[in-house]
Every structure is written in structure tokens, then in C-alpha cells.
């Protein structure tokens, strides 16, 4: 019997996110490389939304979201790691839809 592929669908208020690759090393304004392991304070991360549940109201697939990666659940699918969180754990979204923006852009 061939392998059947099952589509993952998020439930309720859950969001599936892939952490953005640029969240590793970063550079200071003076050009100094700061390794990803450097701890200064709790650091939030950006990720790309891959799926949302039926009760998610403010986040859409394709948005970039800001969240605390330490408080989320990891899941591995076909060798890639994703995070699953509640919509309320998202601190901000970066999207082309402008409704109540801050005036800051990525």
C-alpha cells in the first residue's frame, strides 16, 4: 500500500510558524557580529505563518509574526522543525495589510 499523504490542518486558535532563517547571528550598528547564542535579554523571534486554525482572527497564512520562541511547542514534519502556538502568544504581525500599523516596516 503506498504512503498516503495527510494534510496538516491547525485547529481552534492555533498557529503554525517556521522560524525565519535570519534569526541566527546578527550584526550591531557598528558591524560587530553577535552570535545567536549571546544572551542579553529575552529575545523575540520573527517567523512565517504556514497555517492557522478556524478561530484565528488577526493572523493569516503568509504573515510574519513576532513571538517568544522559548514558550512554544516544536513539531518536526519531514525533517523540518516548526512551532505551534496560540494566536494570543503572537506579539505583532508584519503584513501588507495596513489597518492599525505602527509606521515601522521590515
TrEMBL record:
GO terms for MF: ATP binding; metal ion binding; protein folding chaperone; protein-folding chaperone binding; unfolded protein binding
InterPro entries: Chaperonin_GroES, Chaperonin_GroES_sf, GroES-like_sf
Domain of life: Bacteria
SUPFAM superfamilies: GroES-like (SSF50129)
Protein keywords: Chaperone
Pfam families to which the protein is assigned, alphabetical: Cpn10
Function field: Together with the chaperonin GroEL, plays an essential role in assisting protein folding. The GroEL-GroES system forms a nano-cage that allows encapsulation of the non-native substrate proteins and provides a physical environment optimized to promote and accelerate protein folding. GroES binds to the apical surface of the GroEL ring, thereby capping the opening of the GroEL channel.
Subunit description: Heptamer of 7 subunits arranged in a ring.
UniProt keyword Hydrolase present: no
Family: Belongs to the GroES chaperonin family.
Name of the featured protein: 10 kDa chaperonin
Amino acid at each position: 500500500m503506498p504512503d498516503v499523504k495527510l494534510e496538516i490542518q491547525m485547529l481552534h486558535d492555533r498557529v503554525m510558524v517556521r522560524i525565519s532563517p535570519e534569526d541566527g547571528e546578527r550584526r550591531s550598528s557598528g558591524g560587530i557580529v553577535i552570535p545567536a547564542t549571546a544572551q542579553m535579554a529575552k529575545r523575540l523571534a520573527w517567523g512565517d505563518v504556514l497555517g492557522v486554525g478556524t478561530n484565528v482572527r488577526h493572523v493569516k497564512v503568509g504573515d510574519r509574526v513576532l513571538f517568544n520562541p522559548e514558550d512554544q511547542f516544536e513539531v518536526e514534519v519531514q525533517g523540518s522543525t516548526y512551532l505551534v502556538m496560540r494566536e494570543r502568544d503572537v506579539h505583532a504581525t508584519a503584513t501588507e495589510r495596513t489597518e492599525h500599523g505602527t509606521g515601522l516596516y521590515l
